Automatic annotation (TrEMBL):
<feature type="transmembrane region" description="Helical">
    <location>
        <begin position="137"/>
        <end position="158"/>
    </location>
</feature>
<feature type="transmembrane region" description="Helical">
    <location>
        <begin position="95"/>
        <end position="117"/>
    </location>
</feature>
<dbReference type="GO" id="GO:0015297">
    <property type="term" value="F:antiporter activity"/>
</dbReference>
<comment type="similarity">
    <text>Belongs to the multi antimicrobial extrusion (MATE) (TC 2.A.66.1) family. MepA subfamily.</text>
</comment>
<feature type="transmembrane region" description="Helical">
    <location>
        <begin position="192"/>
        <end position="216"/>
    </location>
</feature>
<dbReference type="InterPro" id="IPR002528">
    <property type="entry name" value="MATE_fam"/>
</dbReference>
<feature type="transmembrane region" description="Helical">
    <location>
        <begin position="417"/>
        <end position="436"/>
    </location>
</feature>
<keyword id="KW-0472">Membrane</keyword>
<keyword id="KW-0046">Antibiotic resistance</keyword>
<feature type="transmembrane region" description="Helical">
    <location>
        <begin position="362"/>
        <end position="381"/>
    </location>
</feature>
<feature type="transmembrane region" description="Helical">
    <location>
        <begin position="165"/>
        <end position="186"/>
    </location>
</feature>
<dbReference type="InterPro" id="IPR051327">
    <property type="entry name" value="MATE_MepA_subfamily"/>
</dbReference>
<feature type="transmembrane region" description="Helical">
    <location>
        <begin position="388"/>
        <end position="411"/>
    </location>
</feature>
<keyword id="KW-1133">Transmembrane helix</keyword>
<keyword id="KW-1003">Cell membrane</keyword>
<keyword id="KW-0813">Transport</keyword>
<protein>
    <recommendedName>
        <fullName>Multidrug export protein MepA</fullName>
    </recommendedName>
</protein>
Length: 461
């Protein structure tokens, strides 16, 4: 892979976009699929209560991933802009500071959770029947949280460095090792949910080592330099990364509140249905984020180079890809729902199996709107407009979905839970389109005015 891919003028813009998008989507698919494999092994090897417990634990994993997204998205955007300006030294300083800060945060998280494990499990919604499972799973996962965060950050920055295929290889290594270890620890050694957590943690260790090796090689544009904490740059990283981070963090909060309301209005069996929906929803969301991540470093590069024509083309290509992917997932959920649900629930359990199919098909209509929402948010992150991006990401990921959840419960009772995402994503898509239409001209105009651009950035921060 050419480490100068971003600036390679001999390659068409479409070829560059596909060169970034395809590995990004594949990486996200692999991540999603091996997360699903975790659920499949737990459901088949331990039981449905254990599957519900893993789903109850997921908001904590979302929290870890959200912090990593904040740092990696913010840092990769700034790094790409510096690369567009040919300022390699500044790019290296951001890369080094970002990695060290992530490690410090991960150690603080580990200490805090281990000292308050039962309180954290209770807050997440663990019940008497799931408490032990949740504590066993969280107690192991938190020991590896640093590897989760560093691994994802390095994966994103490797793509900005010009090696998107290498990033995919690292994710594949992690996925394969996780599947193999899941089988050994759950099905052979019978370690239950602890085995699933250990397998997932070790897989992140392997990918972290793989990614670190790249940055010590000569063909890497980015390299570690002397660590120096730069608060203004750290503030920029945080603010640029907040939209993507809040999307993931709010996703965890939403999952927690959905679980609590499902238990209240439907019962613990409903958490099993929602677990399956969450695995599918994660696959859809990761696909959209993969498309967005294929767009982001290129848009940021051309933003730094003040090339608005290529930025417009990249947005159009990404939006088309997002719409096609959204439609495809809705169709799949209606063509083969029995196959999807059958991965987690034995078809002989007729009542549970049939109900799980029904609620999955209802919920799947929300996927039709998700692509545009994620792409619009990612585009504004790429051009250093985190405030606009946050409106979209927080809308779809938190405010609108919670408003829709309680509104639909008020109208339809527990049944309304399955319709809430459709209302939230649809409303957000309308908002995202309006924001793009009204704000995009100002972005292109300000891009060519250093004074105005600086003033706009200061407003965001």
């Amino acid at each position: 892979m050419d480490s100068k891919l971003l600036s390679n003028e001999n390659m068409s813009l479409k070829a560059k976009f596909l060169r970034y998008m395809i590995p990004s989507v594949v990486s996200m698919w692999v991540f999603s699929l091996y997360t699903m494999v975790d659920g499949i092994f737990v459901a088949r090897g331990v039981g449905e209560t254990a599957l519900a417990a893993v789903n109850i634990s997921m908001p904590f994993v979302n929290f870890i991933f959200a912090l990593s997204l904040m740092f990696s998205t913010g840092a990769s955007t700034i790094i790409a802009v510096y690369l567009g300006k040919k300022d390699i030294d500044s790019a290296n300083k951001i890369f080094t500071m970002n990695t060290v800060v992530i490690i410090i945060f991960s150690l603080l998280i580990m200490g805090g959770v281990l000292l308050n494990l039962e309180k954290v499990a209770t807050m997440l919604g663990a019940t008497a029947s799931t408490m032990d499972y949740v504590k066993h799973y969280l107690g192991i996962i938190v020991l590896f949280n640093g590897f989760f965060m560093v691994s994802y950050s390095l994966e994103v920055i490797i793509k900005t460095d010009g090696f998107p295929i290498l990033a995919t290889c690292g994710v594949i290594i992690s996925a394969i090792s996780n599947v193999v270890l899941d089988y050994l620890f759950i099905m052979v050694f019978h370690w239950g949910v602890m085995g699933a957590a250990i397998a997932t943690g070790l897989s992140q260790v392997f990918s972290t080592v793989f990614f670190l090796v790249h940055f010590f090689r000569k063909n890497s544009t980015l390299n570690f330099s002397r660590f120096k904490f730069d608060f203004p740059e750290f503030k920029k990283i945080a603010f640029i990364g907040i939209p993507d981070s809040t999307t993931e963090l709010s996703c965890g909060i939403v999952v927690m509140l959905f679980n609590l309301n499902i238990i209240k209005y439907i019962g613990e069996q409903g958490v099993v249905y929602y677990s399956i929906i969450n695995y599918v929803n994660t696959l859809v969301l990761m696909t959209m984020m993969g498309i967005a991540q294929g767009m982001q470093p290129l848009v940021s590069y051309y933003f730094g180079a003040e090339n608005s024509t290529n930025m417009k083309k990249l947005f159009k290509m990404s939006a088309i890809a997002g719409v096609i992917a959204s439609a495809a997932f809705v169709v799949i959920c209606h063509l083969i729902p029995d196959f999807i649900v059958g991965l987690f629930i034995d078809p002989t359990e007729t009542a549970i199996f049939t109900e799980a199919i029904r609620v999955l098909q209802i919920y799947s209509y929300a996927f039709a709107f998700m692509g545009i929402n994620v792409i619009v948010s990612a585009f504004f992150v790429s051009v250093e407009r985190p405030g606009i991006a946050a409106v979209v990401s927080l809308g779809r990921g938190f405010f609108l979905i919670l408003a829709a959840l309680y509104l639909m419960i008020a109208i339809l009772g527990g049944e309304g839970i399955w319709y809430s995402a459709i209302l939230a994503e649809g409303t957000c898509m309308i908002t995202a389109i309006v924001l793009y239409k009204t704000k995009i001209k100002a972005v292109y105009k300000d891009m060519k005015s250093p004074k105005v651009k600086k003033e706009k950035l200061n407003e965001c921060y």
